[in-house]
């Protein structure tokens, strides 16, 4: 079995996979590959899969599979898998880092101090405590965000048409109600035809 690592992964991965078969990072050997590991860079289109007659499995190292034509893969009998929880906490922490940085004006404070200024009074800030966070999507990542928002004393509202209940968020029936009192909005949705242009000025 030939395992092709098509995108950049941790340098230890080839050794970890060696017990399952031959491992290569040479994308020129796609036509020989039984398994392909990708991240975001490689686009697994119809043409890509047609160039790999032995391909049986595509693994996306990450949450989304937007870069894989899943319908065509199904037609060809190619299984598609991802790693849905691999980056949940990292993305949730990044989301929270931005939510903290903006109202506390951390970047402005750092920049002004680097320039020799001390803008203590000029940089007015607000707290997250008591504010409403509205989440669009309440899957693995958004749930981790909701947990942290709850710990900060925020009200958490979520809209997700495919989820019926959440321990960490009050679910809203429609997008407009979800954002009505929102102080912060965070999107955790795949890019699909359904979510394309989900937001505009009217919402």
Descriptive report:
- By secondary structure, the chain is of the alpha/beta class.
- The chain is 29% helix and 17% strand.
- The chain contains seven helices and nine strands; from the N terminus they run βαββαβαβααβαββαβ.
- The strands form two sheets. Strands 2-1-3-4-5 form a five-stranded parallel beta sheet.
- Helix 4 (88-104) packs across helix 6 (140-151).
- The protein is globular and about 65 Å long.
- It starts with a strand and ends in a 16-residue tail after the last strand.
Strands ordered across the widest β-sheet: 2-1-3-4-5
Structural classification: alpha/beta
The helical percent reads: 25-40%
Rg on CA atoms, Å: 22 Å
| Sequence of secondary-structure elements | EHEEHEHEHHEHEEHE
Sum up the overall morphology in one term: globular
Say how many strands there are.
9
How far is the first residue's CA from the last residue's CA? 51 Å
Number of discrete helical segments = 7
Strand content: 15-25%
Properties at a glance:
203 residues, alpha/beta
Which secondary structure elements does this structure contain, and how are they paired or packed?
Blueprint: E1 2-5, H1 13-17, E2 22-24, E3 35-38, H2 46-50, E4 57-60, H3 70-75, E5 79-82, H4 88-104, H5 106-114, E6 132-136, H6 140-151, E7 155-159, E8 170-171, H7 175-179, E9 184-187
Parallel strand pairs: 1-2, 1-3, 3-4, 4-5, 6-7, 6-9, 7-8
Summarize the structure in short.
With 203 residues, the protein is an alpha/beta fold.
């Amino acid at each position: 079995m030939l395992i092709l690592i098509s995108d950049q992964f941790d340098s230890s991965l080839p050794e970890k996979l060696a017990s399952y078969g031959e491992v290569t990072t040479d994308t020129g050997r796609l036509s020989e590959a039984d398994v392909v590991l990708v991240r975001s860079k490689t686009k697994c289109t119809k043409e890509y899969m047609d160039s790999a007659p032995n391909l049986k499995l595509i693994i996306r190292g990450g949450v989304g599979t937007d870069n894989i034509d899943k319908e065509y893969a199904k037609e060809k009998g190619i299984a598609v898998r991802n790693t849905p929880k691999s980056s949940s906490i990292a993305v949730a922490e990044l989301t929270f880092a931005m939510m903290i940085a903006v109202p506390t004006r951390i970047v402005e404070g750092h920049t002004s101090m680097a320039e020799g200024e001390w803008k203590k009074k000029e940089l007015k800030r607000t707290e997250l405590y008591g504010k409403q966070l509205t989440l669009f999507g309440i899957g693995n990542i958004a749930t981790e965000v909701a947990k942290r928002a709850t710990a900060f004393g925020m009200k958490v509202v979520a809209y997700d048409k495919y989820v019926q209940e959440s321990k960490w968020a009050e679910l809203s029936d429609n997008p407009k109600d979800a954002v009505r009192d929102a102080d912060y909005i965070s999107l955790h949705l795949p890019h699909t035809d359904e979510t394309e242009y989900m937001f505009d000025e009217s919402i």
